[in-house]
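Chain A, query sequence.
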Amino acid sequence: MKKIVYLILALLLCIPLTGCGGKLNESLLKSDSVPLIIIAGKHANMNFFTEIPETLSKLINDSMTVSDTGNGYQCKADVSIIINDGAPATLDLNFDLTETTNEYNENYLNANVESIKNNIQRVLLSNKVIADDEESDLLTALHEASFIAKGQPANLYIYDSGYTTSGYLNMNSSAYDIANNDVESIISQLSSKNAIPSLENISVYFEGLGNVAGAQNSYEEYSSNLTDLWKGILSYANAAFANVQYSNINGTAMVYDEDQKSDVNYPYVTPISFHVPSTEVLAHVYNSAQLGFKSNSADFKDGVDLAKKAIQDTQLESLLKFVNSEDGTIYVVGSIAKTSPDSNEKTSQISANRAQVVKELLIELGIPSTRIQTIDAGVTTFTWRNSDEFPDGKKNTTNQQNNRVVAIIPDSESCASEVQELKNAGYIE
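Chain A, predicted structure.
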């Protein structure tokens, strides 16, 4: 079941009419409200706001009603929260205001509004509202918003990076890679699968698009692609209104360190990787997320397709040309992050196993097994590795993620000299 955090703010403020300083000014009564749905992309690899943004604050106001029940005054906000990740669950939260006063006046009403905002902020920033899956599926979150609204007018506030790694719109798949597919083509593919929900009568306010952290690169060169895609999806969904803002709010990085346990555990989210850097060495290096490995494992999360695509798109043609025209060896080098001072400098079973798995993929792709040699480099220093620590000794979690790699290097390449040194030092698996 999709994770929907229903923030049912039935905030009942029953103030007796006798001895209260008279009735509430009729001008303060407000019966017209619009239900508010919030999609919160509170997961690793993106920033998340630390205070309620101005747009969301206004929408919370719009979701409120103030009415005279005959026995007192009722202040209510109709708000639902959807946590955007890959496999959410459901949590219900209820809140009651505790403020009291002898007179229900404008100041008290404003205090109630602020209390509601504070409650919503506490929930959004609490450990109860947090992604618990390693993927992101904003398209399915939109389906959930459509289900909640049930065709009635509503406001939808989205705070998410817009990079999705699961469901129909998996941007790591070749069909939905926004660097190599035009927006019309992607939307056409989604519509053919009925993957875009109806957002009729829903006004959408999308903030934080492209606002990333941790292992997820920002890919500024594709900002217009990403923005146009979500504008196109919302247009196809017949949203009553859509305002999509690219990376307009700074926030707190929800950076996940797979080696450090804490009270708040943000699962590592598979980053979107549109291209591999073009330098000679880095063109041969794939981090664990690019290949789709599970955390601390040589097993794949969703099969071998992601790993095969990465190799096919970046290196397979040159590897086949190498084995057909030259003699020599193709080295598959596994490397991991150094997570403690006593980390084994020579070998790690994870990096060895990952190198072996990639070797098997190369064999499937047509490289003779006799031409492939695996090397378990563990935490040994390479040209393509950055320091696992900051100068003060603290962990550099971004570098650690980038150091969990498998490199595929023919010995004809100039960067193979380091591999030869490893071979001579006895690191051959």
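The radius of gyration is 26 Å. The first helix runs from residue 54 to 62.
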